[in-house]
Amino acid sequence: MRMRAGLVVATSVALAAAAGIAPATATAGHGGGKPVIRVIAKSLDNPRQLSYDDGHLYVAEAGRGGRKCVGEGPEGRTCVGLSFAVTKIYWDGGAWKHRRVVQGLPSGAAPDGGFATGVDGVSALHGEIWGVETYAPPEAGVPTKPPWNTLGKLLRVGHGKARSAADITAVELKHNPHKASVESNPYAVLALPDGRRIVADAAGNDLVVVSPHGKARPFTVFPDHDRNQSVPTSLALGPDGKLYVGELNGEAAKPTARVWRVDPRTGKILGWKSGFGSITGLAFGDDGEMYVSQLLAGVVTKVSHGKRTNVKVPFPAGVAVDPYDGKVYVSAWSIADRDGTVLEGRKTPGGQVWKIIGF
User: Fold this and answer.
1) Fewer Cβ atoms within 10 A, N terminus or C terminus of the chain?
2) What is the model's pLDDT at position 166?
3) Given strand 128-133, what is the order of strands in its sheet?
4) Can you say whether residue 248 is alpha, beta or left, with left for phi > 0 and alpha for psi between -120 and 50 degrees?
């Protein structure tokens, strides 16, 4: 198994490079004034999912791999190491600052540190922080001793450590809810107010629910459509109390990806909204606006009262909204480590988090 090539999300990230989509500016898609962009954190390692909690913004840094290289494939070798982090971004002393609340756990990336996978999801609620780590089977050639035993797990983050809270991949290996194949890539997590956590298994095409006591079980299975598997990558709780799930199915030239609406109690699919490119982030404003990050299209889309407005963001991933002032945050250059990666012979900036004002 090729660690990066075998992980559906990381593979699709690489397709963006092949498409040559790397916008360097941010402008309004239609109507209104030009949004103002502020880079509030940079020199991040492949920043992915974002979570806003009590005045703090948390970002999952998938890491930059390491020196041990394994496997071969169309994307080259995957180099693994202990470089993932969960980072807190906050305003202090008149400036944005950030610090890693946990670091030093498994990550796999290209030799230059780009296109990483590791802890891709984070969710913080009332001071509790949860992360979710991708999976690689033993035959991938990665180490198996601690801390590599966190692969495929839901992690509780605190006091500088990440402890296993539930085995997400074990659900896929035991039940295989989507019968196309047995694959697992826990990619996004959402902590619910009732103490449960929902995890999107991108390779398993399903959601896993974890009880407050740590019991994990199948929750929702997403059907194939438009000749592609769903590949759920992002989670948000809507103002209507329903669970919303963004999927990777789709590309810039053929926007078939859906935002699914799911009953958070039963896991039943209630409907969907379609017409998006590959989705890698999802969030809601208090007034019901939905923000959708589209990786391959290079935009974050605001959906409000049936109207869609775009802001260009280079390789966007996680999205979060400040519930107090409605400002939108997004991970940019999410396929690059702190030093940047090479796309079409040109070096990109390192991973960043942007604040969008006036969206």
Assistant:
1) N
2) 98
3) 119-125, 128-133, 153-158, 161-167
4) alpha
Question: Per DSSP, what are the bridge partners of residue 291?
Answer: 283, 302
Measure CA 353 to chain center: 13
Mean pLDDT, range 229-254, rounded to an integer: 93
State how far the Cα of 89 lies from the Cα of 307, in Å rounded to an integer.
Answer: 31
DSSP states along 42-95: EEESSEEEEEEETTEEEEEE-----SEEE---TT--EEEEEEEEEEEEEEETTE
Least Cα distance to 274 among 264, 285, 260 occurs for 260
Both tokens of residue 58?
């948390």
State the burial class of residue 176 (Cβ atoms within 10 Å of its Cβ: 0-12, 13-18, 19+). Answer: middle
Region for residue 108 given its phi and psi (left: phi exceeds 0; alpha: psi -120 to 50; beta: otherwise): beta
325 vs 7 pLDDT, higher one: 325
* 41-59 tens-digit pLDDT: 999 999 999 999 999 999 9
Show the CA angle centred on residue 27, arms to residues 250 and 329, nearest 5°: 70
Nearest to 88 by CA among 48, 56, 45: 56
